[in-house]
Amino acid sequence: MLCLGASCVIAPSILGLHAAPALAQDTPEARDVTVARQEFRAGIAAAQAGRWEEAREHFARSYALNPRRSALFNLAGAQARTGQLVAAAESYREYLGEDEERAEEARALLGELEARVPTLRLRVTLADDDALTLDGEPLRRLLLASPIPVDPGAHRVAVTRGEAEVAAQSFEAVEGAAVEVALDVPPPPEPAAIPEVTLPPEQPRRSAPAAAVAVEDPAEVDGEGGDDVLGAWWLWTIVGVVVAGAVVAGVAIALTPGPAPQSDGFGDLEILRVP
Fold first, then answer.
1. How far is CA 188 from CA 11, 134, 150, 197, in A?
2. Is the dihedral of CA 232, 235, 239, 240 positive or negative?
Protein backbone atom coordinates (compact mmCIF):
# COMPACT_ATOMS: atom_id res chain seq x y z
CA MET A 1 0.00 0.00 0.00
CA LEU A 2 1.38 3.40 -1.02
CA CYS A 3 -0.02 6.33 0.97
CA LEU A 4 0.81 9.93 0.23
CA GLY A 5 -1.09 12.32 2.42
CA ALA A 6 -4.76 11.39 2.48
CA SER A 7 -4.50 9.21 -0.63
CA CYS A 8 -3.46 5.60 -0.83
CA VAL A 9 -2.89 3.27 -3.74
CA ILE A 10 -2.43 -0.47 -3.78
CA ALA A 11 0.94 -1.65 -5.09
CA PRO A 12 0.96 -4.43 -7.73
CA SER A 13 3.03 -6.75 -5.48
CA ILE A 14 0.13 -6.87 -3.05
CA LEU A 15 -2.25 -7.95 -5.83
CA GLY A 16 0.08 -10.53 -7.36
CA LEU A 17 -0.03 -8.75 -10.70
CA HIS A 18 3.45 -9.99 -11.65
CA ALA A 19 2.07 -13.43 -12.43
CA ALA A 20 1.20 -14.23 -16.04
CA PRO A 21 -2.51 -14.58 -16.82
CA ALA A 22 -3.84 -18.13 -17.14
CA LEU A 23 -5.70 -17.56 -20.41
CA ALA A 24 -5.79 -20.26 -23.05
CA GLN A 25 -6.19 -18.09 -26.11
CA ASP A 26 -5.87 -14.56 -27.39
CA THR A 27 -9.45 -13.38 -27.07
CA PRO A 28 -10.60 -9.76 -26.94
CA GLU A 29 -11.21 -10.20 -23.21
CA ALA A 30 -7.67 -11.49 -22.76
CA ARG A 31 -6.22 -8.50 -24.57
CA ASP A 32 -8.31 -6.13 -22.41
CA VAL A 33 -7.04 -7.75 -19.23
CA THR A 34 -3.43 -7.60 -20.46
CA VAL A 35 -3.66 -3.89 -21.33
CA ALA A 36 -5.52 -3.16 -18.08
CA ARG A 37 -2.66 -4.73 -16.12
CA GLN A 38 -0.14 -2.59 -18.02
CA GLU A 39 -2.14 0.55 -17.31
CA PHE A 40 -2.39 -0.36 -13.64
CA ARG A 41 1.41 -0.80 -13.32
CA ALA A 42 1.97 2.47 -15.16
CA GLY A 43 -0.37 4.20 -12.73
CA ILE A 44 1.56 2.82 -9.74
CA ALA A 45 4.83 4.04 -11.21
CA ALA A 46 3.40 7.51 -11.88
CA ALA A 47 1.97 7.73 -8.34
CA GLN A 48 5.27 6.75 -6.78
CA ALA A 49 6.93 9.51 -8.81
CA GLY A 50 4.30 12.04 -7.70
CA ARG A 51 2.74 12.40 -11.17
CA TRP A 52 -0.83 12.10 -9.94
CA GLU A 53 -2.53 13.46 -13.04
CA GLU A 54 -0.82 10.78 -15.11
CA ALA A 55 -1.55 8.14 -12.49
CA ARG A 56 -5.25 9.05 -12.49
CA GLU A 57 -5.48 8.60 -16.26
CA HIS A 58 -3.74 5.20 -16.09
CA PHE A 59 -6.00 3.94 -13.31
CA ALA A 60 -9.11 5.20 -15.13
CA ARG A 61 -8.17 3.28 -18.30
CA SER A 62 -7.28 0.18 -16.32
CA TYR A 63 -10.63 0.17 -14.56
CA ALA A 64 -12.52 0.79 -17.82
CA LEU A 65 -10.81 -2.21 -19.49
CA ASN A 66 -11.04 -4.56 -16.51
CA PRO A 67 -13.16 -3.27 -13.59
CA ARG A 68 -11.11 -4.70 -10.74
CA ARG A 69 -11.67 -3.31 -7.26
CA SER A 70 -8.00 -2.51 -6.83
CA ALA A 71 -8.06 -0.23 -9.90
CA LEU A 72 -11.13 1.57 -8.53
CA PHE A 73 -9.49 2.04 -5.12
CA ASN A 74 -6.37 3.51 -6.70
CA LEU A 75 -8.45 5.66 -9.05
CA ALA A 76 -10.21 7.20 -6.04
CA GLY A 77 -6.88 8.01 -4.41
CA ALA A 78 -5.54 9.63 -7.60
CA GLN A 79 -8.73 11.64 -8.04
CA ALA A 80 -8.41 12.98 -4.51
CA ARG A 81 -4.76 13.92 -5.07
CA THR A 82 -5.66 15.90 -8.22
CA GLY A 83 -8.48 17.94 -6.67
CA GLN A 84 -11.37 15.88 -8.01
CA LEU A 85 -12.85 15.45 -4.55
CA VAL A 86 -16.42 14.89 -5.69
CA ALA A 87 -15.41 12.12 -8.12
CA ALA A 88 -13.06 10.58 -5.53
CA ALA A 89 -15.84 10.39 -2.93
CA GLU A 90 -18.11 8.68 -5.44
CA SER A 91 -15.37 6.19 -6.34
CA TYR A 92 -14.92 5.27 -2.67
CA ARG A 93 -18.68 4.88 -2.26
CA GLU A 94 -18.78 2.58 -5.27
CA TYR A 95 -15.89 0.58 -3.84
CA LEU A 96 -17.65 0.17 -0.51
CA GLY A 97 -20.88 -0.85 -2.19
CA GLU A 98 -19.37 -3.79 -4.01
CA ASP A 99 -16.34 -4.97 -2.05
CA GLU A 100 -15.79 -5.24 1.69
CA GLU A 101 -12.05 -5.79 1.34
CA ARG A 102 -10.20 -2.85 2.89
CA ALA A 103 -13.63 -1.43 3.74
CA GLU A 104 -12.46 0.16 6.98
CA GLU A 105 -9.70 1.99 5.23
CA ALA A 106 -12.01 3.09 2.41
CA ARG A 107 -14.57 4.44 4.90
CA ALA A 108 -11.90 6.42 6.68
CA LEU A 109 -10.67 7.95 3.43
CA LEU A 110 -14.25 8.73 2.37
CA GLY A 111 -14.92 10.51 5.67
CA GLU A 112 -11.86 12.70 5.17
CA LEU A 113 -12.96 13.57 1.65
CA GLU A 114 -16.53 14.47 2.60
CA ALA A 115 -15.18 16.98 5.09
CA ARG A 116 -13.01 18.57 2.42
CA VAL A 117 -15.61 18.83 -0.39
CA PRO A 118 -16.90 22.40 -0.85
CA THR A 119 -20.60 22.97 -1.43
CA LEU A 120 -22.50 25.49 -3.54
CA ARG A 121 -25.86 26.97 -2.68
CA LEU A 122 -27.30 28.58 -5.80
CA ARG A 123 -30.13 31.10 -5.63
CA VAL A 124 -31.76 31.68 -8.99
CA THR A 125 -35.20 32.08 -10.51
CA LEU A 126 -35.48 30.49 -13.92
CA ALA A 127 -38.04 30.80 -16.68
CA ASP A 128 -39.45 27.64 -18.23
CA ASP A 129 -37.10 27.72 -21.22
CA ASP A 130 -33.93 28.76 -19.34
CA ALA A 131 -30.94 26.40 -19.20
CA LEU A 132 -28.57 26.33 -16.23
CA THR A 133 -24.91 25.28 -16.53
CA LEU A 134 -22.01 24.84 -14.13
CA ASP A 135 -18.58 25.07 -15.74
CA GLY A 136 -20.22 24.59 -19.13
CA GLU A 137 -22.04 21.39 -18.12
CA PRO A 138 -25.84 21.19 -17.73
CA LEU A 139 -27.00 21.51 -14.13
CA ARG A 140 -30.34 19.93 -13.26
CA ARG A 141 -32.88 22.14 -11.52
CA LEU A 142 -33.58 19.48 -8.90
CA LEU A 143 -30.09 20.10 -7.48
CA LEU A 144 -31.03 23.66 -6.54
CA ALA A 145 -32.99 22.41 -3.53
CA SER A 146 -29.82 21.19 -1.75
CA PRO A 147 -26.14 22.18 -1.40
CA ILE A 148 -24.29 21.10 -4.53
CA PRO A 149 -20.88 19.46 -4.02
CA VAL A 150 -18.12 21.03 -6.13
CA ASP A 151 -14.38 20.64 -6.38
CA PRO A 152 -12.07 23.28 -4.92
CA GLY A 153 -11.09 26.03 -7.34
CA ALA A 154 -12.67 28.46 -9.80
CA HIS A 155 -16.14 27.82 -11.20
CA ARG A 156 -18.73 29.60 -13.31
CA VAL A 157 -22.50 29.31 -13.37
CA ALA A 158 -24.55 30.66 -16.26
CA VAL A 159 -28.12 30.85 -17.51
CA THR A 160 -28.89 30.75 -21.21
CA ARG A 161 -32.17 31.53 -22.89
CA GLY A 162 -32.33 30.30 -26.43
CA GLU A 163 -28.93 31.11 -27.93
CA ALA A 164 -28.19 34.05 -25.59
CA GLU A 165 -26.56 34.03 -22.17
CA VAL A 166 -28.73 36.16 -19.89
CA ALA A 167 -26.86 35.80 -16.57
CA ALA A 168 -23.52 34.46 -15.32
CA GLN A 169 -21.27 34.61 -12.28
CA SER A 170 -17.87 33.20 -11.37
CA PHE A 171 -16.92 32.07 -7.86
CA GLU A 172 -14.09 30.39 -5.99
CA ALA A 173 -14.69 27.24 -3.96
CA VAL A 174 -12.46 26.51 -0.98
CA GLU A 175 -11.99 23.09 0.64
CA GLY A 176 -14.43 22.46 3.44
CA ALA A 177 -16.33 25.73 2.84
CA ALA A 178 -19.82 26.51 1.64
CA VAL A 179 -20.32 29.23 -0.95
CA GLU A 180 -23.58 30.93 -1.89
CA VAL A 181 -24.17 32.46 -5.31
CA ALA A 182 -27.21 34.51 -6.34
CA LEU A 183 -27.91 34.97 -10.03
CA ASP A 184 -30.02 37.90 -11.16
CA VAL A 185 -31.88 36.54 -14.18
CA PRO A 186 -34.05 39.02 -16.10
CA PRO A 187 -37.63 37.94 -16.69
CA PRO A 188 -38.50 36.76 -20.17
CA PRO A 189 -40.00 39.41 -22.45
CA GLU A 190 -43.73 39.67 -22.64
CA PRO A 191 -45.21 38.08 -25.74
CA ALA A 192 -45.91 40.56 -28.49
CA ALA A 193 -49.46 41.84 -28.35
CA ILE A 194 -51.63 40.98 -31.31
CA PRO A 195 -52.75 44.25 -32.89
CA GLU A 196 -56.48 44.82 -32.70
CA VAL A 197 -58.12 45.03 -36.07
CA THR A 198 -60.78 47.75 -36.30
CA LEU A 199 -63.32 47.19 -39.03
CA PRO A 200 -64.81 50.23 -40.78
CA PRO A 201 -68.46 50.96 -39.96
CA GLU A 202 -70.88 49.08 -42.14
CA GLN A 203 -72.27 51.24 -44.91
CA PRO A 204 -76.02 51.11 -45.64
CA ARG A 205 -76.81 49.20 -48.75
CA ARG A 206 -77.92 51.26 -51.74
CA SER A 207 -80.71 49.95 -53.95
CA ALA A 208 -80.24 49.93 -57.70
CA PRO A 209 -81.70 52.97 -59.45
CA ALA A 210 -85.15 52.35 -60.93
CA ALA A 211 -85.40 52.16 -64.69
CA ALA A 212 -86.61 55.33 -66.27
CA VAL A 213 -90.22 55.03 -67.43
CA ALA A 214 -91.68 57.40 -69.93
CA VAL A 215 -94.90 58.84 -68.60
CA GLU A 216 -97.32 60.22 -71.11
CA ASP A 217 -99.03 63.39 -70.48
CA PRO A 218 -102.54 62.53 -69.33
CA ALA A 219 -103.79 65.43 -71.30
CA GLU A 220 -102.37 63.96 -74.50
CA VAL A 221 -103.80 60.53 -73.76
CA ASP A 222 -107.26 61.83 -73.09
CA GLY A 223 -107.10 64.21 -75.99
CA GLU A 224 -107.30 67.15 -73.71
CA GLY A 225 -105.14 70.10 -74.35
CA GLY A 226 -104.07 68.84 -77.87
CA ASP A 227 -105.30 68.55 -81.45
CA ASP A 228 -107.99 66.03 -82.41
CA VAL A 229 -106.51 62.67 -83.45
CA LEU A 230 -108.62 62.49 -86.64
CA GLY A 231 -107.10 65.72 -87.79
CA ALA A 232 -103.51 64.67 -87.26
CA TRP A 233 -101.45 64.58 -90.45
CA TRP A 234 -99.56 61.50 -89.48
CA LEU A 235 -102.75 59.46 -89.13
CA TRP A 236 -103.84 60.09 -92.73
CA THR A 237 -100.32 59.46 -93.97
CA ILE A 238 -100.44 55.98 -92.47
CA VAL A 239 -103.89 55.36 -93.93
CA GLY A 240 -102.68 56.39 -97.37
CA VAL A 241 -99.73 54.07 -97.24
CA VAL A 242 -101.94 51.15 -96.19
CA VAL A 243 -104.43 51.79 -98.99
CA ALA A 244 -101.74 52.13 -101.62
CA GLY A 245 -100.23 48.89 -100.45
CA ALA A 246 -103.54 47.11 -100.77
CA VAL A 247 -104.06 48.36 -104.34
CA VAL A 248 -100.61 47.25 -105.43
CA ALA A 249 -101.16 43.82 -103.93
CA GLY A 250 -104.44 43.40 -105.76
CA VAL A 251 -102.98 44.33 -109.12
CA ALA A 252 -100.15 41.89 -108.61
CA ILE A 253 -102.56 39.08 -107.92
CA ALA A 254 -104.66 39.87 -111.03
CA LEU A 255 -101.68 39.83 -113.36
CA THR A 256 -100.36 36.53 -112.11
CA PRO A 257 -101.03 33.77 -114.78
CA GLY A 258 -103.28 30.92 -113.70
CA PRO A 259 -102.30 27.31 -113.65
CA ALA A 260 -101.81 25.51 -116.93
CA PRO A 261 -104.89 23.55 -118.19
CA GLN A 262 -104.87 19.95 -117.30
CA SER A 263 -104.38 17.48 -120.20
CA ASP A 264 -107.11 14.87 -120.74
CA GLY A 265 -104.53 12.41 -121.99
CA PHE A 266 -105.40 12.73 -125.71
CA GLY A 267 -103.34 15.73 -126.57
CA ASP A 268 -104.02 17.35 -130.03
CA LEU A 269 -105.41 14.21 -131.72
CA GLU A 270 -107.61 14.90 -134.67
CA ILE A 271 -111.28 14.23 -134.26
CA LEU A 272 -112.14 11.00 -135.91
CA ARG A 273 -114.94 11.70 -138.30
CA VAL A 274 -117.34 8.92 -139.15
CA PRO A 275 -118.18 8.83 -142.93
1. 57, 21, 29, 27
2. positive
Question: 98: which residues sit within 8 A by CB, 6+ positions away?
Answer: 69
The pLDDT tens digits of the residues spanning 39-92 come to 999 999 999 999 999 999 999 999 999 999 999 999 999 999 999 999 999 999
> What are the C-alpha distances in Å from 262 to residues 191, 256, 267?
111, 18, 10
| pLDDT confidence of residue 236 | 61
At residue 248, the 3 state secondary structure works out as: helix
Q: What's the mean pLDDT when you consider all of the chain? A: 78
Amino acid at 76: A
Assess contact for 182 and 188: CB atoms under 8 A: no
d(CA 92, CA 78): 11
Model confidence pLDDT, tens digit, residues 222-241: 555 445 555 556 666 666 66
Domains, in order of start, for the chain:
2-116 (1.25.40.10), 119-182 (no CATH)
Low-confidence spans in the chain with pLDDT less than 70:
1-28, 98-100, 205-275
Tell me the C-alpha distance between 194 and 240, whole Å: 85
Helix (H) or strand (E) holding 62: helix 52-65
**133: DSSP letter:** E
End-to-end CA distance of the chain: 186
Q: How far is CA 237 from CA 221, 245, 246, 255, in A?
A: 21, 12, 14, 28
Q: Which residues 6+ apart lie within 8 Å of 114 measured at CB?
A: 89
pTM, full prediction: 0.60
pLDDT value of position 95: 92
Q: How far apart are CA 5 and CA 175, in angstroms?
A: 15
Instruction: Output the CA torsion 48→49→50→51 (10° steps).
Output: -110
